[in-house]
Amino acid sequence: MDIEFLQAELERLFELPELLDLTSNLLGFDPEKVGGTAGKASFVRALTEHCQDLDAVEALCDVVVASKAAVNPQVAKIGHNGLTFDDELKPGQELGPYKIVRKLGEGRLGISYVAQKDDKDWRLKVLRKEATRDRRGLHRFLTLNRLVGGISHPGLPASLSAGQIDGRYYVVHEHVEAQPLSARIARTGPMHINEARPLLKGILEPLQELHSRRLAHGDLKLDNVAVVRGSDGSQQLVLMDAFSDRLRARARVANGHNELFSTTASPKTVAPEQIRGLVADPPSDVYSFGAMLYEMLSGKPVFRSESALGAAIGHMSQVPDPPSSVAPRGWIPKDLDDFVLGLLVKDPLKRPTDARVLLEALETLGRAPEARTEKRISDEELDSRVDALIADPTNAEAAVALEE
Q1: What is the SS3 assignment for the chain?
Q2: Which pLDDT does position 371 carry in this prediction?
Q3: Total-model pTM
């Protein structure tokens, strides 16, 4: 664990008087207020805990690296990436009234578990400490989730609540077995608009519940749409993990790549104004929905870049290719191309205003123009035209009459 490693390096490299001196003169802390000054080991523990509480661990690492040539390079990495001190909860462990059953997954902002309370399964998402550093963003996130907890809609998580237990911040709601929409797209490939239409409606209806209250989801992406199948074969879509863009977590290095989007939403679907640091609003969700629709219809993200930076440049400054150019041939008509690209314009004032407008457009979206009135003939007339052509196969007028 990083904090234990850092403590060991401090004890190895410094004597107590040196630690007291750097604490006072370089870090600017009063050693007596830090505590534990009676011995080196006790002061090292007190100092690292004090730095954690004040978000000063990186500053402490800077001091150590600059002061001692023999320092382990891992200390510099801690100073650059921050501490990894999010201890996972283990099956059987309790957090307040919730007993952990199993880990569901983890992301940049938190770790999710299935937990039990009152003989019911719950999805418990515990925020990483890094994601709680900005207290203004944290309180907005918690408050907005509590607001949604008061909305009853099948497309939003049921019995949603948020708070703090034993120093850990969490969001919890009833757990249902589901798969993300991203997994379905990855498995089956692009969808025709007629197949996608009920799914799009399932996304837009709960989104409109938020927009009608002047709330924006802020992180719409295929991963955050849960597809719940009923015992009768029906399916219900649920929008998950709303408002995560309000949290502020520093970019981490994951799988050898630096995460660019430390304060915004997914690089596949983030609106340009969110990249510029603005808080999401309904037109931002409209842009993200457009990016989701693009990927559902074509099987490709709007901007196909190997890096988050490349995707950000695309969202900020590039005109996307029409989805028909990357979808199966003949899959997407021009009116559908135009609709998707209209959701992806850079200026939020030029997009549809909210999900209500999109729901109204969805009914006719991608449908063929109403067929022209056909002139029908009787069976007897059809037989007569067939007989005429059989009697004289070289008769051009008879051939045209039958073809008509």
Answers
A1: CHHHHHHHHHHHHCCHHHHHHHHHHCCCCCHHHHCCCCCHHHHHHHHHHHHHHCCCHHHHHHHHHHHCCCCCHHHHHHHHHCCCCCCCCCCCCEECCEEEEEEEEECCCEEEEEEEECCEEEEEEEECHHHHCCHHHHHHHHHHHHHHHCCCCCCCCCCCEEEEECCEEEEEEECCCCEEHHHHHHHHCCCCHHHHHHHHHHHHHHHHHHHCCCCCCCCCCHHHEEEEECCCCCEEEEECCCCHHHCCCCCCEECCEECCCCCCCCCCCCCHHHHCCCCCCHHHHHHHHHHHHHHHHHCCCCCCCCCHHHHHHHHHHCCCCCHHHCCCCCCCCHHHHHHHHHHCCCCHHHCCCCHHHHHHHHCCCCCCCCCCCCCCCCHHHHHHHHHHHHHCCCCHHHHHHHHC
A2: 39
A3: 0.77
